[in-house]
């Protein structure tokens, strides 16, 4: 641009000199009426005016080209719009007011949506969210109706004996570990066993909860899950890895979520967050089929 500017100034100087010469020859400005008494001068004047006009047009065109090549490309400051992958619209205000971490809820919904898109899940009627990052003395299990978006239950839930005391710290999928497992589960059938009325669970994430059946990780009621135990001991009693509920609500919760509901057991475990195929879902093959939750 500096070189071009210098050339432009040089051209301007040349134009000024040309005009001065013409003015001297004609005893008047070059843009005035040429003298009819001197046809040769008049022709020369017209030729130089034409040359000057052509040069001016070339300069103007060149300036526009240089500006176009050197001006920075305008970049949009707007963030790219990312299509939501969850077709489930839950009552987020009610969820937040009941103690749900909305970021954890979003992870759960993304995982469920991924499972549905991949064919691992049918659209579930319920979502059970367990947030093991919270203390056992705090209600940390919520059941959502996926059709209405409403919260159906908010309950205490125990973790495994070797997972921690009041705070959960360790998780495993190993047999006999007596630790809780994290990740996405599908609820199955019920039975009556050693812990009474119980609900079988299928772990959908090998390495994190894939051994749920072999480990007999089930939802059941337990006498050590209630507010009195929490108050007396500073924590709930602990299971052998099962998400145990209060006996007062266990049957009702189990009957609500059984047969195809999903359970999302959360803990901010770095390996799981990085490797879970439901939390790192590829783009759906048919994005148009995924609707967007608006609330």
List the helices and strands and how they pair.
Elements: H1 2-26, H2 39-70, H3 92-97, H4 102-118, E1 126-131, E2 141-145, E3 151-155, E4 183-193, E5 196-203, H5 212-215, E6 218-222, H6 227-233, E7 244-246, H7 250-257, E8 262-266, H8 270-275
Parallel strand pairs: 1-8, 6-7
Antiparallel strand pairs: 1-2, 2-3, 4-5, 4-8, 5-6
Describe this structure in words.
By secondary structure, this protein is an alpha+beta fold. The protein has 2 domains: 2-70; 92-281, L,D-transpeptidase catalytic domain-like (Beta Barrel). It has helices at 2-26, 39-70, 92-97, 102-118, 212-215, 227-233, 250-257, 270-275; strands at residues 126-131, 141-145, 151-155, 183-193, 196-203, 218-222, 244-246, 262-266. It has an 8-stranded mixed sheet with strand order 3-2-1-8-4-5-6-7. The longest helix is centred in the N-terminal third of the chain and has 32 residues, at 39-70.
How many strands in all? 8
Large-scale geometry = globular
CATH class of the largest domain: Mainly Beta
CATH superfamily of the largest domain: L,D-transpeptidase catalytic domain-like
**Helical content band:** 25-40%
CA distance, first residue to last residue: 53 Å
What would CATH call the architecture of the largest domain? Beta Barrel
Total tally of structural domains: 2
CATH topology of the largest domain: L,D-transpeptidase catalytic domain-like
Total DSSP helices: 8
Determine the mean pLDDT: 78
Proportion of strand residues: 15-25%
Sheet with the most strands? 8 strands, mixed
SSE pattern: HHHHEEEEEHEHEHEH
Spans where pLDDT lies below 50 across 5 or more residues? 1-42, 58-85, 285-295
Q: Strand order, biggest sheet?
A: 3-2-1-8-4-5-6-7
């Amino acid at each position: 641009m500096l070189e071009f500017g210098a050339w432009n100034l040089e051209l301007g100087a040349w134009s000024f000199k040309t005009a001065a010469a013409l003015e001297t020859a004609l005893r008047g400005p070059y843009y005035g009426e040429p003298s009819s008494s001197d046809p040769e001068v008049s022709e020369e004047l017209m030729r130089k005016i034409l040359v000057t006009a052509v040069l001016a047009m070339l300069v103007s065109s060149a300036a526009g080209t240089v500006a176009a090549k050197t001006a920075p490309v305008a970049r949009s400051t707007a963030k790219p719009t990312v299509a939501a992958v969850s077709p489930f619209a839950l009552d987020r205000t009610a969820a937040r007011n009941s103690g749900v971490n909305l970021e954890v809820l979003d992870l759960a919904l993304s995982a469920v949506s991924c499972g549905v898109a991949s064919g691992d899940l049918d659209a579930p009627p319920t979502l059970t969210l367990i947030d093991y990052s919270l203390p056992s003395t705090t209600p940390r299990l919520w059941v959502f109706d996926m059709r209405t978006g409403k919260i159906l239950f908010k309950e205490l839930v125990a973790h495994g004996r070797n997972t921690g005391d009041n705070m959960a710290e360790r998780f495993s999928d190993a047999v006999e570990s007596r630790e809780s497992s994290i990740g996405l589960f599908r609820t199955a059938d019920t039975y009556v066993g050693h812990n009474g009325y119980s609900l079988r669970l299928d772990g959908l994430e090998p390495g994190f909860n894939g051994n749920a059946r072999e480990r007999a990780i089930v939802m059941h009621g337990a006498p050590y899950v209630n507010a009195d135990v929490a108050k007396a001991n500073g924590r709930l009693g602990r299971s052998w890895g099962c998400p145990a509920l209060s006996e007062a609500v266990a049957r009702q919760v189990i009957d609500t979520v059984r047969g195809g509901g999903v359970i999302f057991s959360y803990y901010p475990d770095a390996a799981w967050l990085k490797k879970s195929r439901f939390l790192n879902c590829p783009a759906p093959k048919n994005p148009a089929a995924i609707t967007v939750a608006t609330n």
